[in-house]
Design a protein that fits this description.
- There is one protein chain.
- Helix content is 21%, strand content 34%.
- The chain has 146 residues and is α+β, with helices and mostly antiparallel strands.
- The chain has a domain of 92 residues: Ribosomal protein S6/Translation elongation factor EF1B (Alpha-Beta Plaits, 2-Layer Sandwich).
- A four-stranded antiparallel sheet has the order 2-3-1-4, with helices on one face.
- Helix 1 packs antiparallel against helix 2.
- The longest helix has 17 residues.
- The model has no long low-confidence stretch (mean pLDDT 82).
């Protein structure tokens, strides 16, 4: 059987229990058509980059699927008919990843990025302007003309 990673976005006004019910429904579709599901990750309610069907947020869910193509096609057909599913995407993979997905890993691996300002060393600069030299006085900045 082919291996797939499937991500779908559910409407923001659903409850977490309703999203879990959607997962179970689509898991049942896969199993009824001769497939199986592996890892299922709920990534939670996240902000969308742009509005989709008047929604600014959506529940993201990842499913690892091992199923024949017909089972995936049936699940996608039912998702397309559902008003609760905003978008979905299925990708065929060679093998499923071990451990948590990139979305579920901790975000502490920023290591040597140097903070907000990259490579700048802001600690010992004092008030000087580095290579740029001192500022010119602004015209008309000190009250009127004399």
């Amino acid at each position: 059987m082919a291996l797939y990673e499937h991500v779908f976005l559910a409407r923001q006004d659903l409850s977490q229990q309703q999203v879990d019910a959607l997962v179970e429904q689509y898991k049942g579709v896969i199993e009824a058509n001769g497939g199986s599901t592996g890892r299922i990750e709920n990534w939670g309610l996240k902000s969308l980059t742009y509005r989709m069907n008047k929604n600014r947020k959506a529940y993201f869910t990842l499913m690892d699927i091992s199923a024949p193509p017909a089972a995936v096609a049936e699940m996608e057909r039912q998702m397309g008919l559902s008003e609760d599913v905003l978008r979905f995407m299925t990708i065929k993979v060679e093998k499923h990843e071990d451990g948590p997905s990139a979305m579920m890993q901790k975000r502490d691996d920023r290591g040597d990025r140097g903070g907000r300002f990259g490579d700048r060393d802001r600690g010992d600069r004092g008030g000087d302007r580095g290579d740029r030299g001192p500022r010119r006085p602004r015209e008309g900045a000190e009250g009127g003309q004399e």
